[in-house]
Specification:
The complex is a heterodimer of chains A (697) and B (160).
Chain A (H helix, E strand, L loop, with lengths): L10 E6 L2 E6 L4 H8 L22 E4 L6 E2 L10 E3 L3 H16 L15 H9 L16 E2 L4 E3 L9 H9 L5 E4 L6 E4 L12 H5 L5 E3 L12 E6 L8 E7 L2 E6 L13 H5 L14 E4 L2 E4 L2 H17 L4 E4 L6 H14 L5 E2 L6 H7 L10 H6 L2 E5 L3 H4 L1 H14 L2 E6 L11 E4 L3 H16 L3 E6 L6 H12 L3 E6 L6 H6 L20 H6 L4 E5 L11 E5 L4 H4 L3 E4 L8 E4 L4 E5 L11 H12 L8 H11 L7 H5 L4 E2 L27 H5 L2 H4 L14
Parallel strand pairs in A: 1-5, 16-17, 16-23, 18-19, 18-21, 19-20, 21-22, 23-24, 24-25
Antiparallel strand pairs in A: 1-2, 3-4, 3-5, 6-7, 7-10, 8-9, 11-12, 12-13, 14-15, 14-25, 26-27, 27-28
Helix pairs in contact in A: 2-3, 7-18, 8-18, 8-19, 9-14
Chain B lengths: L4 H12 L10 H12 L4 H11 L3 H10 L11 E6 L2 H5 L2 H12 L5 E2 L5 E6 L11 E3 L2 E3 L4 H12 L3
The complex binds iron/sulfur cluster (3 copies) and FE2/S2 (inorganic) cluster (FES) (2 copies).
The site of one iron/sulfur cluster has 15 residues of chain A, from helix 4 and helix 5.
């Protein structure tokens, strides 16, 4: 918000529609009206972006001002007497609408935005249905700028919201305005097409139907959808995404109510890459290898086969290895490790490690309030990004930092192996070659960071193992309050760690009673049974492999039994984002033939006669809340779609000394591990597969 | 992209004339001066100005789209701009434009075959008090009549 900084605490008292209100001096009048419930219509004004004052919809009457004033640009002052719905104001709004509609096609019944259009709503509200304008309207054909972004100039009301969100919000600046007057229209950066993040923020923020989404346009009327608020299943940032569902199909991902930790933000993956869910290659039937071929079998046959194999192997004293997923829920991963440790009595448990959280927790032992949340990235005076092309790998975190820079003048420092987008506003951007050089660069920054009042340090897999302690020592040496984020890749990478999918650590980072093999060692150990849930570690030399997955990954294709699992958009459960914020998934659709991983495991346990407790998400969550350190999160918060911070152990964490196993997959804005390969929305854009640290940003 | 030493010096001065972070203010003068030297605003020039003024190229495109005195195609040696906006229109601006068009044998935004003249019908140039007004390159001509314009154009056509 364009408001006063906390140091200026002066407040003013003014009157709005006869009601007296107090507000910090400098607050925009439109915001004060909104808080009071006196909603003032606005097209160009959008909280958080620069002021445009282009649409004149927000005119209000202020006593002693000779003319109506644009409330979106007027700061409140002492003694102001404001009227937001006086006859003069209402008449002015009606006139503004008549102007806006003078060259606007009045074909709302076939417009993609119908029912959700701010212009339609305002015209309805102010009864501005008549026009005195009899000239011929200027028509230009609709343009397609990318597989996901379409622009229809005649509908555009030139509010510049799209231009500002792209430039100020994302730091991309791919949109501009060409020509003037009636010929004015929005243009893309490549002349006739876009080369950008393909995030769709411009489409989402457009108050009218001028920008439309290739994934969604003309598929439905908005009121025919159900809206399911859940968590994006791609990267670790944990954005809330609202899935628009009709007849058991997801047709839209957006941020309808801005209620998540991410506010209005979503990257292209959260907005479009839900399409993997209905990819034709989705597995919908269990498969068993018979005569060398994987053939479709019934669920009961498959479950029985798995249970028999597990029981027989156990009875014969055979060896197991278990690899869990980075998109699976906390409940699933918790249940999986419990199944492995208590049911199969094996310590061989691991997952795809992408960031060294255990080393960070260990290094922070004894310190409290040192783990940053996504809010901290927006509110802390300074941030240091190490080893990550944040705008590509952690789009929401990058968005938070940029907003922090814009609204609070936060200083951002980057130390990365190549040029990053943050460089365009960073206080300093240093490039390193080797890890040794990385620390040398940090030394260069030391004095400047010491002068900061506080700092958040975000670091990638470039800092792992012993280097993490070295980094924390560096943070200590600054003599200021420092918080940390260990960057991890995927939607529940953090949860997999917290739930103890590690050969040496159980849930809550407590030492496992017995240490087992790490994933690469399991693959090479000639195990009797390898059990993989939602991961693609490769075939390995296990004698028998069971895979639960949505797709026939290379690992699944080589397996002996494959069980088709439900996606994150088809199940309940919780996931934990990169900052340790726990959020709840909500099932939006179902794919016939698949089952959630938790149910699959429960059924296998039942078939084996194992008692591992009730296997519903709610029951397992109750067990997690009572037994996993830091996970006693408030239920009402997560049940109502909020994010609750998990507070992992404050104490030494026994490390397995295998930092080389921590490796980010280096996904870009257009890749997302296995899921990304099955998203046509991602693979169809010209920017695919994208490149980290490119100058072309 | 490199320019003549004179222009380089000018650019340097321009960029230094604005406070830190405000170099975007130099976009219009840079484009104008460079256009004079190059004859038109080329795509390379757009990229170069964006780089020097530290703005996204699309913001330079916006400026070019908005201001009619920036051209993407080379103009004639003499670019004749006749105002037909309201003040000029009331005192014969439109007739003047048609006269110029007929005399030069070209229409709006066209250039004569010999490359000497180009013609453009423009909006108000802020010379209403002396309407009808014509601008040729950077020179304003006031209270222009068809006769005055003929004399002017003929004098320009003569090799100098
Ligand atoms: S899709 Fe995103 S990056 Fe591309 S133009 Fe729109 S806002 Fe900008
Ligand atoms: S395309 Fe939409 S957001 Fe952009 S200026 Fe036009 S109306 Fe506003
Ligand atoms: S930033 Fe990450 S969590 Fe957010 S929408 Fe993009 S991929 Fe999903
Ligand atoms: S909202 Fe105030 S002028 Fe557009
Ligand atoms: S109308 Fe011609 S100069 Fe103003």
């Amino acid at each position: 918000m364009m408001t006063a900084t906390p140091t200026e605490v002066t407040t003013v008292t003014l009157s709005i529609n006869g009601q007296s209100v107090t507000a910090p001096a400098g607050t925009l009048l439109i915001e004060v009206c909104k808080k009071l419930g006196a909603e003032v219509p606005a097209f160009c004004y959008y909280e958080g972006f620069s002021l445009q004052a282009a649409c004149r919809m927000c005119l209000v009457e202020i006593e002693k001002f000779p003319k109506l004033q644009a409330s979106c640009t007027i700061p409140v002052s002492e003694g102001m007497v404001v009227r937001t719905e006086s006859p003069a104001v209402v008449a002015a709004r009606k006139d503004m609408l008549e102007f806006l509609l003078s060259n606007h096609p009045l074909d709302c019944p076939v417009c993609d935005k119908g029912g959700e259009c701010e212009l339609q709503d305002m015209t309805f509200r102010y009864g501005a249905g008549e026009s005195r304008f009899t000239e011929i309207k200027v028509h230009t054909p609709e343009k397609q700028w990318s597989p996901v972004v379409f622009y229809d100039a005649p509908r555009c009301i030139l509010c510049y919201r799209c231009v500002r969100v792209c430039d100020e919000g994302l730091g991309v600046g791919a949109l501009g305005i060409q020509y003037r007057g009636v010929g004015a229209e929005i243009i893309p950066n490549m002349g006739d097409h876009l080369n950008c993040d393909e995030c769709g923020a411009c489409i989402d923020i457009c108050p009218v139907g001028a920008l439309t989404s290739g994934a969604y346009r003309y598929k439905t009327r908005p009121w025919e959808m159900n809206h399911v608020g859940t968590v994006c299943t791609h990267c670790s940032n944990g954005c809330k995404t609202t899935l628009g569902v009709r007849t058991d199909e997801i047709i839209r991902g957006n941020n309808r109510d801005h209620s998540g930790i991410n506010g209005e933000f979503l990257c292209g993956k959260g907005r479009y890459a839900f399409d993997f869910n209905k990819h034709e290659d989705r597995l919908t039937s269990p498969l068993i290898r018979k005569d060398g071929q994987l053939v479709e079998v019934s669920w009961s046959e498959a479950l029985k086969a798995v249970a028999t194999k597990f029981s027989e192997t156990q009875a014969a004293g055979g060896s197991f290895g278990v690899i869990g997923g980075v998109h699976s829920t906390n409940e699933e991963n918790y249940f999986l490790q419990k199944f492995a440790r208590q049911g199969l009595k094996t310590a061989n448990i691991d997952h795809q490690r992408t960031g060294d959280v255990p080393a960070l927790l260990d290094a922070l032992s004894g310190k409290s309030d040192v783990l940053a949340t996504t809010d901290d990235l927006y509110n802390t005076a300074a941030a240091l990004v190490i080893g990550s092309d944040l705008a590509q790998q952690h789009p929401f975190l990058a968005y938070q930092l940029r907003a922090n820079g814009r609204h609070h003048n936060a200083r951002v420092y980057t130390v990365t192996p190549g040029k990053v987008r943050e460089a365009d506003y960073a206080a300093a951007s240093l490039i390193y070659g080797s890890t040794a050089e990385l620390f040398a660069k940090l030394d260069e920054l030391r004095d400047r960071l010491k002068a900061e009042p506080e700092l958040v340090i975000l670091f990638s897999d470039a800092v792992k193992g012993a280097d993490v302690a070295k980094l924390v020592a560096y943070g200590d040496s600054l003599g200021i309050k420092v918080k940390y984020v260990a960057l991890v890749d995927y939607s529940n990478s953090r949860g997999a760690l917290d739930m103890g999918l590690l050969p040496t650590l159980g849930p809550g980072y407590h030492a496992a009673p017995v240490s087992g093999l790490a994933a690469p060692d399991m693959l090479a150990a000639g195990l009797d049974v390898l059990w993989v849930m939602g991961a693609d570690p490769g075939k390995g030399n296990a004698k028998f492999t069971v895979v639960q997955d949505m797709f026939l990954t290379p690992t699944a294709a080589a397996a002996d039994i494959v069980l088709p699992s439900a996606s994150a958009y088809e199940k309940s459960g919780t996931v934990t984002n990169v900052c340790g914020q726990v959020q709840k998934l909500k099932p939006a659709v179902r794919t016939m033939g698949t089952k959630p991983d938790l149910e699959i495991m429960g059924l296998i346990a039942r078939e084996m006669g194992l008692n591992l407790g009730i296997w519903t998400h709610d029951h397992v969550l109750t067990e997690i809340r009572s037994s996993v350190a830091g996970y006693n999160v408030p239920l009402p918060v997560i049940q109502t779609g909020g994010a609750a911070q998990a507070q992992p152990v404050n104490g030494r964490v026994p490390l397995d000394g295998r930092p080389e196993l921590v490796q980010s997959a280096q996904d870009t804005l257009f890749t997302s591990g296995t899921l990304g390969r099955y998203s046509k929305a991602l693979t169809s854009v010209i920017e695919y597969p994208g490149k980290l640290y490119s100058d072309n940003q | 992209m490199t320019f003549s030493p004179d222009l380089e010096a000018r650019f340097e001065k321009l960029v230094a004339s604005y406070p830190e972070g405000r170099t975007r203010s130099a976009v219009i003068p840079m484009l104008m001066y460079a256009q004079d030297e190059l004859g038109a605003v080329t795509p390379e020039l757009v990229a170069e100005v964006a780089k020097r003024c530290k703005v996204p190229p699309i913001q330079v495109e916006e400026v070019i789209g908005y201001y009619s005195m920036l051209h993407r195609k080379p103009q004639g040696k003499y670019h004749v701009q006749v105002c037909t906006n309201i003040s000029c229109l009331l005192v014969g601006g439109e007739e003047l434009y048609h006269h110029a068009s007929k005399k030069l044998g070209i229409g709006h935004k066209q250039t004569t075959a010999d490359g000497i003249f180009s013609l453009e019908e423009v909006e108000c140039m802020g010379a209403c008090s002396w309407a009808p007004a014509v601008e040729i390159n950077y020179d304003f001509h006031h209270h222009v009549t068809a006769e005055k314009l003929d004399v002017l154009l003929d004098s320009l056509k003569k090799p100098q």
